Fold this protein.
Amino acid sequence: MTVDLGSLRQDYTDTTVQVYAGAGSWSALPDLLAEMGSARPFLVCGPQVATLPEIRALGNLAGAFMQVESDPSDATIAAAGQAARAAQADLILAVGGGSSLDAAKAIAAEALAPDWIAAADRPGQATELPAGALPVLAVPTTAGTASEVTPFAVITFLATQHKLVLNHPALLPRAALLDPNLLLSAPREARVAAGLDALTHGIESYVSRQATEATRARSQEAVLEIARHLPRGAAEHPHVDSLGHLQRAALLAGLAFSKTRLGVVHALALPLSVLFGVPHGVANAILLPHGILFNIPAAGALYGNLSLAFRVQSSGRDAEPSAERLLQGVRELATGIGSPTRLRDVGVSRGVFGRMAQEAAQSAHLATNPRPADLSDLIEIYKAAY
């Protein structure tokens, strides 16, 4: 069946990614692959997504790697890159949550340059891609990371226990296909974590030192959409319409933070996944209120602008826009959808706060945080979140 790709096309002037979206848009995949000139697509996904009927029905693939784990490792990238190279793939078809999409972008680079991922373990240094990368068609099954429209790939290096944000224009997907029906396959816990991850993206990009009027408009719209639709999108039986709104909100936040970077919350979240296996969205959800509290002296008025997105139980002077109202709204949203709120509840040990802070201190996100944070500040935030 031929699908009118033009009817699915969404134009965003601040990205080169060609975005196609709408309920049922998955049926346009063959036409989109043909339009992109791909005769030998290579599928990358995780084991859960591999069981979906949409994936099982796929044909005409050059090959597949369907074992991407949460927080993908350099070993996964090396193995899948070799498989894609052996299959003579001409495109990477990435289907899944942020982990699978991030992995796919790195695999697209590894496929053209064996051992590229091994050389990318360089904390604090720019990512290099001298050989470029295969084109990537990204199909998200969660509404969180917005990896489908960012040049970032978060990879864990097993030997050194580094979790690094690789960043290069060549890692940006060529196209993205957003079908909210695919989000119905995600467990409720994954939808909760993804939604709060996207909320963190929106809030941190809004107060970033590199934010502009244009990026703040994107961030603010994303925060508003998430506040409105996450309760229904994270329900046991989610509404497809709400999932569609959350997909778009995550994308908008991704377009914003691609230009602004993020802040202290994301810097602090990365070590939690490496050392304790805490899902990235859960780590952000726990740390976000404490990051807001830390930044209020430098960004209180900006936080106030975002606070009107939340209908919190307040009266009198507290009904006015304020950072405190935003903080209350974030906490009520997180607890209302069942997110963990303390580090101790997800297995984090107090004894490694110093080590985690040292790792977080190397993150490029701190450079764009509205308030400077030194090692002692990072440790205190971990303590407050414990």
Summary: The mean pLDDT is 93. The radius of gyration is 20 Å. The longest strand covers residues 91-96. Strands lie at 9-10, 18-21, 41-44, 63-65, 91-96, 136-140, 152-157, 162-167, 175-178.
